[in-house]
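Sequence in, structure out.
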Amino acid sequence: MQQFIDLIIRFATTFGIRLITALLILLIGLQAARWVKKSVRSLLEKTRLDSTLTSFAVNLSYVAFIVLVMVAVLERAGVQTASFLTVLGAAGLAIGLALQGSLTNFASGVLIIIFRPFSVDDLVVIAGSTGFVDDISFLTTTIRMPDNQTVIIPNSAIYADKIINISLKKKVRVDLVFGVSYEADIDKTKQILWEIAEADERILHQPAPQIELSELADSSVNFTMRVWIKSKDYLTIHFGITEKVKKRFDAAGIGIPFPQRDLHLYSVK
């Protein structure tokens, strides 16, 4: 009986010491994890890293530290962690294979956030969509179209295609093409287009507008009006100018042709 009691005492003493040590490791580890989280956030904020990437890095470092603490706690408590780590690694591999597409989007999202080809509220053309950037996350980017529709684009599709950031520069050039009939007076046509360009407040005077005869097309003589505008006016510059051109051309008797073909008939004897 005394031997059994001694065995219980030795077991309780040994296990109790391990348990107390494991609890101490856990408590100290949790405090250390909070300190690591706070230190990483402070360090990244000093580098002026993007807030989304900062938040992700802070949370990742915190979770990684907690995992290390839990492994140390289990090891001290007498639990064999080798098999646990093996299972955890296998589960991570299986999850990675299952979420391969999402991981590609995630990697592209990290690159977008780091290199910043565009920012929120920028006017962009990405993956065939033109609109304003509403949100950038690690998996997707949300675009607000001019008609207020919302387009959610996977980040991998964005990084696999060209990115046009209209808002990156304060001013951009727009080419407006107007066709007139072959009978139209070239000098009068250019003069009308000049007057319209100079009267529109959205068109900048520096660099100066450029109006040139650009093409002798099948059914029309095409003039190109190259004008510089502020980036914010990119979507609206066509409106108003097109109407003014039509009215001024009508008043001046300058015809705007429609596609046509000349048909020649020959009689064969």
